């Protein structure tokens, strides 16, 4: 019994080590979904990496969008900056961090009117980026200087 348990733990460790070496696939567009909580309307829209897109009063910039390789557990994640733009007022940073398609509530935008979440990534980058880092396993808290002012 103990040798079977050791074998199972060893196999699990080896599988985890093998999957940790696979690089994420980097994409040029994040596919996002947004919900207007007032009207209940849900829309799907694209956010090209490095360009800003508007959704209501929000300005969203996708910094990167990544997917795990097909042989691993499916996951899409995007690193997003989300700002609120109101006429006559300075922009307010609402969110900066990773959002995960499989767990939208894990790292969510908190806004009274809008919800935004990652649905997928599209348009793979053709050339490999050796300096790219894999997506994190779980998002960490924002440093105090990046939290929105209240």
Overall description:
By secondary structure, this protein is mainly β. It has a domain at 25-124. The chain has one helix and seven strands; from the N terminus they run αβββββββ. Strands 1, 2, 3, 4, 5, 6 and 7 form a seven-stranded antiparallel beta sheet that branches. A hairpin with a 7-residue loop joins strand 5 (76-84) and strand 6. The longest helix is centred in the first third of the chain and has 19 residues, at 2-20. The chain starts with a helix and ends in a 26-residue tail after the last strand. The relative contact order is 0.20.
According to DSSP, the number of beta strands is 7
- Helicity level: 10-25%
Approximate strand percentage: 35-45%
Separate helix tally? 1
Structural class designation: mainly beta
Low-pLDDT segments, ≥5 res: 1-19
Q: Main beta sheet, described? A: 7 strands, antiparallel
**What is the arithmetic mean of pLDDT?**
80
Distance between the termini: 57 Å
Shape: globular
Radius of gyration: 18 Å
Topology pattern, helix = H, strand = E: HEEEEEEE
Which descriptors apply to this entry?
single chain, 150 residues, mainly beta, 7-stranded antiparallel sheet, 1 helix, disordered N terminus
